[in-house]
Amino acid sequence: MNNRTASVAEPIARLIEEFHKLPGIGPKSAQRLTYFLVRMPSEEAKALCEAILAVKEKLIYCSICQNISETDPCAICNNDKRDHSKICVVENPLDIMALERTGEYTGLYHVLHGVISPMDGIGPEELKIKELLTRLKDDSVKEVILATNPNLEGEATAMYLQKLITPQGILTTRLARGLPFGSELEYADDVTLSRAFEGRQEIDKS
């Protein structure tokens, strides 16, 4: 417990510190969330606790696409109506949610769970790249769409994957530049994402 939380009750100080660990939650936001929960009716607080526990206890990673799911394979991989000849590679599960909202893409996905970032100590070995390459041994895959975010790390990861995939004779494409550089897929609007899919281009093999 630090000096700022020493004057409050221990359970409140602990909860503030736990909220502060979440991404995008600063000290003031952590305090506001904590005191909101203090005022919350007990039944609602219990429901929130149960929802958090359910996320940790009931969710698993799909053994095929590595997306978060309740079943293995996940509903998308197990859907015969999806186009199994296409795999869209994304950084995280939230990107799938964003792309699915557009209704533009009907193929399969693969979640890397991050990007190559030497400054953060994240190399290819920390990502789900080996699992992707295993999937590409299936001759049914005709196109891999690299949908990593249009920033330095996303571009570097896409280039790394492209060098691994194109020698296998599989069409490798990148989302069109409807997405501004430095943005993230999960925050893009549906129209922008739809146009990015429609305008995707084959990556230069040279």
Distance between the termini: 56 Å
* Biggest sheet architecture: 5 strands, mixed
Oligomer: single chain
Q: Give me the CATH architecture of the largest domain, please.
A: 3-Layer(aba) Sandwich
What are the segments in which pLDDT stays under 50 over at least 5 consecutive residues?
none
Structural class: alpha/beta
Shape: elongated
Radius of gyration, CA atoms, in whole angstroms:
20 Å
CATH class of the largest domain: Alpha Beta
Mean pLDDT: 88
The tally of structural domains comes to 2
Assess the beta-strand content as a share of residues.
5-15%
What is the CATH topology of the largest domain? Dna Topoisomerase Vi A Subunit, Chain: A, domain 2
Identify the strand order in the major beta sheet: 4-3-5-6-7
Share of helical residues = 25-40%
The total count of strands amounts to: 7
Total DSSP helices: 7
Task: Give the helices and strands as they follow along the chain.
Answer: HHHEEEHEHEHEHE
Characterise this structure.
By secondary structure, the chain is an alpha/beta fold. The protein has 2 domains: 3-58, Orthogonal Bundle (Helicase, Ruva Protein, domain 3); 80-202, Dna Topoisomerase Vi A Subunit, Chain: A, domain 2 (3-Layer(aba) Sandwich), CATH 3.40.1360. It contains 7 helices and 7 strands. α1 (10-20) packs across α2 and α4 (93-102) packs across α7 (190-198). It starts with 9 loop residues before the first helix and ends with a strand.
